[in-house]
Structure formats: C-alpha cells, structure tokens
Amino acid sequence: MMIIKLAFSYIKKQKGKTIPLLAGVGLAVMLIFSMLVIRDSGYDSQIREAKNLHGDYNLFFDDIDMNSVEELKKQKEE
To answer: What backbone torsions phi and psi does residue 33 show, to the nearest 5 degrees?
Structure first.
C-alpha cells in the first residue's frame, strides 16, 4: 500500500515527466500490438494464397476395398 501512495505522490509532483512517460509506454504497447496484428494478417494472407493456388480439397475414404481404390486412381479429375 505504501508503494502505491508513493507512486501517486510522484505522479502528482512530477506531471511534466509523468505525461511523456505514460505517452511513451502507450505508444510502445500500440507498436507491439500492431506488429503482432501485421504478422498474423501476413500468415492469413499466405494461407489464403496457397488455397487459391492449390485448392483446399480434403478427402477421406473409410472402409474401402482395394478394387475401389484402383478404380478411383484410374479416374481423371474433372
């Protein structure tokens, strides 16, 4: 509790130094946050580009016999 009182008394007495300090901390937080957002949007853009280029097909066959597998391999994509 003593530390909080000391901090508030410093803030009241040193307004000229406190305001730029808080502004600097705020700008630093915004910069870090914006870098994280830019990185994540870049990853999303790469995933979207790969899906557009190669497609996003998913296929799974369950309980299929080998004859059906060979027939599917012989078929061409349409």
So the answer is: -60, -45
Angle at alpha carbon of residue 29, lines to 25 and 34, rounded to 5°: 150
Phi and psi at residue 37, in whole multiples of 5°?
-65, -40
Q: Which value, to the nearest 10 degrees, does the dihedral of the CA atoms of residues 44, 46, 48, 52 take?
A: 180
CB 21 within 8 A of CB 14: no
Answer whether 0.90 is exceeded by the pTM.
no
Q: Residue 23 CB: number of other CB atoms within 10 A? A: 10
Cα(69)–Cα(59) distance, integer angstroms: 13
Taking alpha carbons only, the member of 40, 19, 41, 38 closest to residue 30 is: 38
The percentage of residues in the chain with a pLDDT greater than 90, rounded to a whole number, is 58
